[in-house]
Amino acid sequence: MIDWDDVRYFLAAARGGSVRAAAKRLGVNHATVLRRIAQLEERLGAQMFEKRPSGYRLTGAGEEVLELANQMEASSHQLETRVFGRDQSVRGLLRVTLTPILATHLLIPDFADFARLHPDIEMDMLTSGELANLTNREADVAIRVVYDRKTLPLNLHGMKGPELFGAVYMSRDRLDAWRAGAPDPMRWIVISMHGIPDWAGEGEVPTTGVPFRTTDAAAQIVAVRQGLGIAALPCFVGDADPLLARVPGTDLHLYGTLWILTQGETRKTKRVRLFSEFVSRRLAAHERLLAGLSVSRD
After folding, report:
1. Closest Cα partner for 145 from 167, 161, 133?
2. 284 and 229 Cβ atoms separated by less than 8 Å
3. Which of 16, 24, 17, 23 is closest to 54 using CA atoms?
4. What is the pLDDT of residues 34-85, one digit of tens each?
5. How far, rounded to the nearest angstrom, does the alpha carbon of residue 180 sit from its chain's CA centroid?
6. Is 163 in a helix, a strand, or coil?
7. Contact criterion met (CB below 8 Å) for 286 and 236
8. Which residues sit opposite 212 in a β-bridge?
9. DSSP class of residue 264?
10. DSSP characters for 96-107?
11. Parallel, antiparallel, or unpaired: how do β-strands 187-191 and 92-98 relate?
């Protein structure tokens, strides 16, 4: 295939009438222009220029290539204009990656508001525990909990959000029963791959050594609601759920800081900028809930 950059050098020389003029126009040295033209000639199997005292003159083959090269340039400019225009308009695909629990228990109402404000933006939510690769364009925006900022890849652009805290929760019914003197000890309800967090103590409520395991957070939350035991949950989940209460005698724990992450040229598109700024404002509005400082219902 013909390298478009080689064609650009050919066009500059044809229009300027000399290698020197082409080099000046493109901001490169004389040798670079000669090398690029030679590569094009080798690829096409034809000589593009005749060198004369008055400068470079196109050969017959060069004249034919010039016509097609002008068409290529016009098409390239048209493509750039269309792509730029698309990216600077509020339409097109927007892919957002975040954990399922952040989506279902906190941000989907905010995403719905954004979608109503911008109906021409096609939203694709990637809700998975696996982190999508922004560099490989698997997503346009990532909303992640980051414990140490130094672990963020250097090529990512980040908007820092609020800190995220967790606590230990149980069902309100089981808490009422325990306060009334029910002797049954509580189980820890844990996600299989994580187990009981090192930071989470049982507080004033005694627990057994027999855990109840689930494979995901959604099942874990339902199990806590059903009174099966206690679990460590983000405060934005536990404090917002009327069926749950914090286990007496337990403390808050810092999970990390929420970041809105984008990469490279993607972050410059209007829909990505609008979404990132919108979510940043909404996260700020959720700050007290995320920090476990929302008004207690007790």
Report:
1. 161
2. no
3. 17
4. 999 999 999 899 999 988 877 788 999 989 999 888 888 887 766 654 554 4
5. 48
6. strand
7. yes
8. 189
9. G
10. EEE-HHHIIIII
11. unpaired
